[in-house]
Amino acid sequence: MKKSILLVAPVLTRSGYGEQSRFALRALRSREDLFDIHIIPLQWGKTSWINDDTDERRWIDHTIEKTINYIQQGGTMDVSLQVTIPNEWENRATINIGYTAGIETTKVASNWIEKGNQMDKIIVVSNHSKEVYKKTAYEVATEEQEGDQPQAIMQLLTDVTAVNYPVKQHDNLEEVELDLDYDFNFVCMAQLGPRKNVINTIKWFVEEFRNEEVGLVLKTNMAKNSSMDREYVYTQITGLLNTEYSDRKCKVYLLHGDMSDEEIHAIYAHPKIKASVLLSHGEGFGLPLFEAAYSGIPTVATGWSGQLDFLCDENRKDRFYNVSFDLNHIPEQVVWENVLIKESMWAYPREISAKEQMRLCYNDIINNTKDSFAAGALQYADELKLRFEEQKMYKAFVDALGLDMGEFDVESWLGSLDIQEIE
């Protein structure tokens, strides 16, 4: 009665797509009565692989071995679930489903439309990704076109559904050791790359709090969590700070290296971590912001893209310190063929607004400002935990697969069994 489903995904990597893959896997495992799960693991860029010795990791390793044996013996799959960027989707099974973190910009590449239309179903992680995918269109020439006749329009025809991530529940977190000089610190968790806008975040933070006892804890890396990576990141940040802001009183701290989910959540729960900040140009979803929000700390963020699915409540009302922005074309150096196209745009946070919102967040917290976003952060965290409860999101994901699993006929099943009555 089960459907064989092949998960092709970077399920063992420390990356955003790795988190997405593990969510998909957990959703499938929540209905092992419906699915016979197989796995082909992918690499994701230059990111590290997880090496945790857990029940889940052991189950994944066993399932990968099972998959290899099954395929070598000529086994076929009912369904493929491919967790990667759309230009890598392929026809691997009777039914093929693409699952992507999707879109941090205003337009998807043309081959994403082509590949998307080869899928039977598409799942994305936010409503921003869904709407951009659906609204992107290209004019294409056809063999029948003559003279001034209008060109044909190519757009997505495959059904696309948005399913957000679930909250994670970690009870009795042990306090992570952070040697922080001041009692008030922002935290920023982001890769040190152009889209995350980390350098401007550091600059604008230091310029706003230059002579005050305020800190910024930066959890970042370039690609891996290696010593070489740390040395590069450290050199980049200290070079900026020591050259332009050597006389500062505020502090910037670097966290680098592998951290477990529990340790990440413990950072948000640390008594000296008061707020989170992320001034990125665009997010497919924005998992670090999500974790901060449901951990109950106020958030300063760009008011655009995937994070609005959770930084706004169900009435679309802001529940965060909303940084204004301008939409403009992505810089030439980040253009990535068939992924980030030069015609697309992303959000450029405004420096004045970023500083104003960080300051407002700081003032609201230290002054216990009534009816502020900061004052309502814990209550809103409880709302998020209900909206994005784990089993609820697993069900939403399984439903989004759109598979007709049929009804389980108990009487026929019992009748097919060779059961002998014992006197």
Radius of gyration: 24 Å
Biggest β-sheet description: 6 strands, parallel
Look at the structure and give the CATH class of the largest domain: Alpha Beta
- Overall, the morphology is globular
Percent helix: 25-40%
Spatial strand sequence of the major β-sheet:
2-1-3-4-5-8
Beta-strand portion reads 15-25%
What are the low-pLDDT stretches, counting only 5+ consecutive residues below 50? none
Kindly report how far apart the N and C termini lie.
31 Å
Structural class: alpha/beta
Number of strands: 16
Q: What order do the helices and strands follow? A: EHEHEEHEHEEEEHEHEHEHEHEEEHHHH
CATH architecture title of the largest domain: 3-Layer(aba) Sandwich
CATH topology of the largest domain: Rossmann fold
What is the CATH superfamily label of the largest domain?
Glycogen Phosphorylase B
Number of domains: 2
Instruction: Give the mean pLDDT.
Output: 93
Total of helices: 13
Describe this structure in words.
This protein is of the alpha/beta class and 423 residues long. The protein has two domains: 3-163 and 391-400, 3-Layer(aba) Sandwich (Rossmann fold); 185-388, Rossmann fold (3-Layer(aba) Sandwich), CATH 3.40.50.2000. It has 13 helices and 16 strands. It has helices spanning 16-29, 55-72, 110-116, 127-135, 198-209, 227-244, 261-269, 287-294, 308-311, 351-366, 377-387, 390-400, 410-416; strands at 3-9, 35-41, 79-83, 95-100, 121-124, 137-140, 152-155, 160-162, 185-189, 215-219, 251-255, 273-278, 299-302, 321-323, 325-329, 345-349. The strands form four sheets. It has a six-stranded parallel beta sheet, sandwiched between helices. Strand 9, helix 5 (198-209) and strand 10 (215-219) form a beta-alpha-beta unit. It is globular and about 65 Å long. The two termini are 31 Å apart.
